[in-house]
Fold this protein.
Amino acid sequence: MDFHVGGFIGGTDLAQGSRDQWTSSFGFFAAAVGSAVGLGNMWRFSYLTAEKGGAAFVFLYLAFTLAIGIPIMLAELTLGRGSGKSPIGALAHYGGARWKPLGALFVVTGFVILSYYSVIAGWTIRYALEALLVGMPADPGSHFGLISEGGGAFIFHIVFMTLTMAIVAGGVSRGIERVSVIAMPILFFLVCGIAIYASTLENSASGYAYYLNADFRNAFSMDVLVSAAGQAFFSLSLGMGAIMTFASYLGREGNLPRQAVSIASADFGVAFLAGLMVFPIVFALGLQGIMGEGTLGTLFVALPRAFLEMGAAGRVVGSFFFVALVIGALTSALSLFEVVVSAAVDGLGWSRRKAVLLMGVLVMLLGGAAAFSLAILDVMDQVANNLLLLVGGLALSIFAGWVMDDPIGEASSGGGDPKGLPVWRFLLRWVAPPTLVFVLWHSVPSTFANFLALFRG
């Protein structure tokens, strides 16, 4: 695969000329879907769906996606394409210098998330290599405990970040786009293929029943509502400026509302398929008890144990599964890192090569803390997801709904139909803000308590 790393090792520097652009609409779509489709789709969505009521949770997730996810995504697309700038410049373009801190928050959020996300992605690289070369570990639980923190985790974190840096250094069209248009179809076919295979396993029906059971008894409890709203927001890579940054490389033509719906639909499709892949395998081998250990337990303990018990077939399926995880992690990391790199190029006047090298090293250093301590990784994840993303999304919905001049005209330029856009602005003004405040209200206490516990411990 040609990643075109010339910009990384001394070739053409795309920052020293006109702003790079996507070469095709599919290239942008693949990259944007890749940003949304990450470990959370095959890691967090399936687990929450099973734990929070099956199809009832999916229904709530879709409702929140329509009410807050797609509207905020369209806001990011509109700001990015209209300004042609990274988040700090985009907010200043439409709201003046006083809104630059919001753009800076997006950049900081992307930086923090990537620093620990790359540690988790490093685990997936290690598991994929081990599955291909030596097979699944004999004791998955002990193995995960050994490799999840320490020097090994740090080395694979560095490996993953180096790969991410090499691709982003190639620029948007010759780096991120080239990888995305190949990686996303491969990811889709891998997930579909494993899901089809899982359907042939004995007792797979029990997995489907557990996954798709429509239990509405607790569907409207506070815990389930907060989880569904949070997942709808998190899974679309909102509140971190990733979609806004990608949209800044778009031409003026194109139907932004349609693109927002298409990206959200593809993201949900992969997440839903992942559940059809994971649960039949786990239940076919009677390992559903490990699901209670949480999302990490499912991904890095339950599934490796299932693949181990499947024998030779499990080694093949397991290899494909972890390769799919690596692809999903990589495409999401590219968008996170591009937010940081683009801000440095636009705001500080750095060359792309300089931005990639310096910011990449800083991400590696901060991620070292997460690589050597799962407790630190967990707190970083909670602070980013439960605070930074939500505050960013809340401020963005207020900005696009109340501050920006004529967002409807901007969103409809280039081919969008303006007829339905007043509904979009209504959702940004009256639905997204109170929903995000609601989620924040119930997320802050536990996040703050865990943050304090880390320092006390």
Notes: Confidence is low (pLDDT under 50) at residues 1-17. DSSP finds 19 helices and no strands in the chain. The domain at 6-456 is CATH 1.10.4160.10 (Hydantoin permease). The radius of gyration is 21 Å.
